Structure to design on (467 residues):
């Protein structure tokens, strides 16, 4: 599901294309010399210092001759290039000059050109990028990753009236169809029996809950990677009702599912040498006579019972069943993503997803990959000392901690109970939203962490092969 022809920001030919000269601070003197004294004097007079994302239009005898893009200290960050689609004149075509990075430019341009247009037309069209000829390193990967991020953004930006559990499941079905994967949807009695916590959380809504499963055999005898996504299409908080302000952006509470679907798309389209299982718990946490109540005791797929300390801590209940199902398949790695806690945002702000993992190799690979591809993650601890905060006198555990502290850690500790210690597992607590627009990152839904997870998985493959 997407509102875009994903090539809308790319030119089909180089006819009439002008040149953007990307330049780092270090490379600015050489570029000035190459452009000649008149252009050099113009740039110097306008105060251009190659700051990241700064764009200067260059005049010529017949009007606009070209442009210069500042890259700051690095040519490989996509965010500098993300300024170009709307900083350059509308409906014009551009090609990259020397000094930049073709893959980063393509990624940044496509991410920066994105606008959500389902219910409001974009105020203007972006400028278009001419892709370099030949097989530039990383170019296809950059485009596929950009397209995966844009599809995830579209899903997150859709209002809950447009995207309920059925529609989110359909998005998984469509992805499987595009990529030659198997799809299965579990609902009704089969859901109540096999995924009882998912069924309980979604039971308060007239829009029935379901689990969407994608299976992809990328390579025979390859390691199995399981991706689990929280797909709460709208979260009222349930009977422990959120405030109006707290409920305002809860259409994005399926951001973890969108992130996992986007990651799955990238892995399948780039033919990663793995086998893949994707599990999406698609529910709506609504208020009704069928909604779960505080102090209810729920059964989970793992056989553990959970006392509902707060109906607004529903995402971890959905993930509990998904993680149990994924663990049964004996994967080499389980990744889950969820817009799980406000505590993670208090600790790390909106831009940094909180990473929790039971495996040091996985932690190192994902953290390093995030830094390298400018999609950072920040590891928080699975502090054992807080595990007892989940104790319950009525059930095997509570779904919230007994103290109003360390909420993101306690939530991760809850999830850990549903993954055997022997299986490497990583959990991402994401915001999935840009509060304000920045180059490459317009206001609205965001698939933060997607590129980091993809790059991290690629670095883990040789580790698995050596074992």
């Amino acid at each position: 599901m997407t509102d875009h022809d994903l090539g809308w920001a790319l030119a089909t030919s180089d006819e009439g294309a002008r040149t953007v000269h990307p330049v780092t601070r270090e490379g600015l003197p050489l570029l000035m010399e190459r452009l000649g004294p008149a252009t050099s004097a113009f740039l110097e007079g306008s105060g251009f210092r190659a700051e990241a994302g700064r764009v200067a239009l260059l005049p010529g005898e017949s009007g606009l001759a070209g442009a210069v893009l500042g890259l700051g200290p690095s040519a490989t960050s996509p965010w500098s290039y993300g300024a170009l689609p709307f900083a350059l004149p509308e409906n014009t075509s551009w090609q990259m000059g020397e000094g930049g990075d073709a893959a980063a430019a393509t990624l940044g341009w496509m991410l920066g050109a994105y606008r959500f247009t389902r219910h409001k037309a974009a105020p203007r069209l972006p400028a278009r990028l001419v892709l370099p000829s030949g097989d530039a390193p990383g170019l296809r990967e950059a485009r596929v990753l950009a397209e995966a991020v844009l599809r995830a953004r579209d899903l997150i930006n859709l209002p809950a009236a447009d995207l309920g559990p059925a529609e989110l499941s359909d998005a998984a079905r469509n992805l499987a169809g595009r990529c030659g994967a198997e799809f299965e949807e579990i609902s009704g009695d089969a859901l109540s029996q096999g995924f009882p916590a998912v069924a309980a959380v979604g039971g308060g809504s007239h829009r029935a809950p379901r689990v969407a499963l994608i299976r992809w055999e990328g390579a025979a005898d390859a390691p199995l990677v399981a991706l689990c996504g929280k797909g709460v299409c709208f979260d009222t908080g349930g009977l422990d009702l959120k405030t109006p302000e707290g409920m305002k952006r809860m259409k994005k509470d399926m951001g973890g599912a969108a992130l996992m679907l986007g990651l799955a798309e990238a892995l399948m389209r780039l033919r990663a040498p793995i086998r893949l299982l994707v599990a999406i718990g698609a529910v709506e946490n609504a208020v009704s006579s069928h909604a779960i109540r505080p102090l209810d005791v729920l059964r989970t797929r793992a056989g553990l019972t959970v006392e509902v300390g707060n109906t607004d801590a529903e995402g971890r209940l959905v993930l509990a069943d998904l993680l149990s199902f994924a663990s049964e398949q004996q994967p080499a790695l389980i990744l889950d993503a969820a817009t799980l806690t406000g505590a993670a945002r208090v600790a790390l702000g909106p831009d940094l997803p909180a990473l929790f993992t039971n495996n040091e190799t996985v932690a190192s690979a994902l953290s390093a990959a995030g830094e390298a591809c400018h999609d950072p993650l920040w590891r928080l601890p699975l502090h054992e000392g807080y595990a007892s905060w989940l104790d319950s006198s009525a059930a095997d555990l509570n779904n919230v901690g007994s103290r109003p502290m360390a909420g993101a850690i306690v939530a991760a500790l809850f999830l850990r109970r549903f993954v055997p210690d022997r299986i490497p597992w990583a959990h991402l607590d994401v915001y999935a939203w840009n509060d304000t627009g920045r180059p490459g990152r317009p206001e609205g839904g965001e698939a933060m962490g997607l590129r980091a997870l993809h790059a991290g998985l690629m670095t883990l493959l040789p580790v698995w092969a050596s074992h």
Observations:
- The chain is about 35% helix and 20% strand.
- The mean pLDDT is 95.
- The two ends are 39 Å apart (CA to CA).
- Residues 228 and 322 are 6 Å apart (CA to CA).
